[in-house]
Amino acid sequence: MLTLEWESEGLQTVGIVVIIFASLKLLHLLGLIDFSEDTVEDEMEMATVRHRPEALELLEAQSKFTKKELQILYRGFKNECPSGVVNEETFKEIYSQFFPQGDSTTYAHFLFNAFDTDHNGSVSFEDFVMGLSILLRGTVQEKLNWAFNLYDINKDGYITKEEMLDIMKAIYDMMGKCTYPVLKEDAPRQHVETFFQEMDKNKDGVVTIDEFIESCQK
User: Fold this and answer.
1) Which of 22, 44, 46, 95 is the most exposed place for a label (fewest CB within 10 A)?
2) Where would you find the membrane-spanning parts of this chain (predicted)?
3) Do residues 64 and 123 share a domain?
């Protein structure tokens, strides 16, 4: 059973931990983290997909993955997603397998939107690689920037109490019966109020990225 200390002051990091942990499972379910010693083709096979990924060299320069890792990632991505893109329903299906004891639909929606950087309703191989590069190998600053983007649902540069509450409720719904002790119904809102007391330094009712990063680093 996955156990979390929900009453601790560090709960604001739970979202980040869940993102990283669930992303690893996402890779596993897509067949993308079996970095075996099998021989991989020197060039990506792109002719059979409708979406063409950017040049391998460009992705290698932009991400924290090696050329061989990118080749293996793309091979698995293409096998699981022949169209070359992942839609939101795929995200929801994967997370429902990872968290069968809860309802992960809303969290998967928020996470999909965070990966879908150009907001076109699909996650391309490039989107996926760049997001995973940050989550798995990015600096603390990069991970926190990415997490802020997740919490900033409407992408206006601020996190409101309503946005944080939506994310928290989604996380609680996803964890389902795996929380200990059992959460009270008003626990998400109480935690959001606690977070804002710590994060909203100038008490203007919203959290900026600077306030978010400073609070999480502490």
Assistant:
1) 46
2) 12-33
3) yes
Residue-wise pLDDT tens digits, 11-69: 333 344 445 545 555 554 444 444 444 434 443 444 334 455 557 788 889 999 998 88
Contact 177, 100 (CB under 8 A): no
3-state secondary structure of 183: coil
**Of the residues 86, 110, 138, the one at which a domain ends:** 138
Give pTM, 2 decimals: 0.71
Q: At what angle do helices 14-29 and 105-115 cross, to 10 degrees?
A: 80
CA pair distance 145, 167, nearest whole angstrom? 16
Angle subtended at Cα 162 by Cα 161 and Cα 164, rounded to the nearest 5 degrees: 65
Per-residue model confidence as pLDDT tens digits over 132-166: 899 889 998 998 999 899 999 999 999 999 999 99
At residue 80's C-alpha, the angle toward residues 74 and 84, to 5°, is 60
Q: Which residues pair with 124 in a beta bridge?
A: 85
**Contact between residue 107 and residue 174 where contact means Cβ atoms under 8 Å apart:** yes
Domain boundary among 82, 116, 138: 138
C-alpha dihedral over 12, 15, 20, 23, to 10 degrees? 180
CA separation for the pair 164, 148 (Å, rounded): 10
What are the Cα distances from residue 115, in Å, to 36, 39, 61, 84, 133? 26, 29, 19, 15, 12
Angle between helices 209-217 and 140-151 (to 10 degrees): 130
Could you tell me the residue range of the domain that residue 109 belongs to?
A: 23-28+57-138
Cβ–Cβ under 8 Å, residues 142 and 20: no
Please check whether residues 107 and 83 belong to one and the same domain: yes
